[in-house]
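Holo model, adenosine-5'-diphosphate. Inputs:
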Amino acid sequence: MTRRIFRAICLVSIVVLLASLALTMGVLYDYFSGTQRQQLKTQTMLASQGAANEGWAYFDGLDTEGYRITWISPDGKVIYDNQTDAAGMENHLDREEVREALDTGYGESSRYSSTLTERLLYSAARLPDGSVIRLSGTQYTMLTLVLAILQPVLVIFAFALAASLLFASRLSKKIVGPLNSLDLDHPLKNTRYPELSPLLDRLDSQQRQLRRHAAELRRRQEELETVTDNMSEGIVLLNEKGRVLSINHRALTLLCTEGCVGESIYTSVSSKEVLELIDAARGGVSTEKIIDLGDGRYQFNTNPVITDAAVTGIALIIFDITEKERSEQMRREFTANVSHELKTPLHSISGCAELMKNGIVRQEDIPRFSGQIYSEAQRMIRLVDDIIRLSRLDEGSDAMRFERLDLYESAAATVKNLEDAAGRAGVEISLQGGPAFVMGVPQLLSGIIFNLCDNAIKYNRNGGKVFVSVLEKEGRAELSVRDTGIGISPEHQDRIFERFYRVDKSHSQEVGGTGLGLSIVKHAARLHKAEIKLESSPGEGSCFTVLFPAAD
Ligand code: ADP
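Output:
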């Protein structure tokens, strides 16, 4: 803009300068040529009077420097010329000024010289005898005048040009300066040019509108980010070249680091399989694939975003299927285990029954065989009962009614029920402690106490002891079941809570175990938000402690 203003000012200055020069020269030329003509006329009149009065003698000794004087007879013959021999001159009757003088008494004309740089002015007057005196003088043409004053004009022009350049430069800067320093963030604060007011008003209203739009967009984006960041699925949006446009928190933790927005996914993600999916989506193909990342298993869905038949972006959605797969695997294992556990007693029952049916069993062996059928059937009943209990626990706590109850009372009832079994196993069971109230489901709490005490009796030695204690400790209700039994070696301690896990399977079967007792304890404890601790050493015994949150 500065340059344009500068150029415009220069151009105007030059045009004005040239125009004023031309005008001045035209006026001056006109004035001087008029004056010159007037002077020539005056002198012609004087010369004609002189010649009329004195004849030839008038021209003797007259200073005619710069003028040509010609005397022409009424028939056009030149009778005197102060610069040329009159006899050799042609007849002048057809000359315009001569004819005019003969007709009217005075005539004048002008003719250009052959070089066009000079103009000859002619002025003729008729004498009383009919002859004509003609004077001619040289007048410079416009071109000659221009050439003559060219040098000073150029000097003036150069000065004027320099001055106008300087002026134009300063002026343009002065005009543009305030424009450059306009405070566009606060348009209404600029007061230098009142002419800019409409523009600044408009700018201000547009800026306010833009701010409103930007705030609205920000709000929407924040809403979207809050929603996507709290989703358990990962979401990534890429442009058609694979540059990350947006990524939610879940996808960020899985795929790349914090600063990957705006970067190429090819530099941020190292998984070859994920990049292959993105390549396919860039080619316009939607894909679904399960990929293992770290400890987890994820389902990746990639879809191209197609606009006007061209891929303009890629949407990647990641589902965490680790837990689903794990629980499916557990279910599969559980089903296989249940079938296996049921098959063994069923085979045994079926075998015994077949022998008895075929009459192969001797009469005295029948009680033994039928006893085995009975104990295997009991084992199956226990197993099925435990499975039913576990599946109820798996279903959740919705149907279970929590109530405030004394853990000590439940323990006392269970211990009493188990006293006979303990006696048969040669184990002494005792309860100590006092009331400790918890919020719980009565059957589940009894189940926890029963399974722990039952195990403590089953995995004990003849003459061993089981100490059950219930007390309130540090604001919690503590149930502990300690035995002096076979103990559990450290490598098994974490695993005994798994379904069907047994340290010694045959021993467990011998004592009527199903392998599900501690799983039920773990599940029920979790539903009561209780914590289980185990201390055990092989040969010395075990101590299971369950810490319940106390009831208010
Ligand atoms: P089970 O029906 O076989 O007793 P549990 O789930 O109750 O199944 O226990 C799992 C395994 O943990 C048992 O088979 C046994 O090997 C071990 N166990 C449980 N309680 C004790 C204990 N008090 N002393 C020694 N081992 C135990």
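The pocket of adenosine-5'-diphosphate is lined by residues 451, 455-456, 459, 483, 485-488, 496, 501-504, 508, 513-519, 542 (CB under 6 Å). The domain at 403-549 is CATH 3.30.565.10 (Heat Shock Protein 90).
Archived with the compound record.
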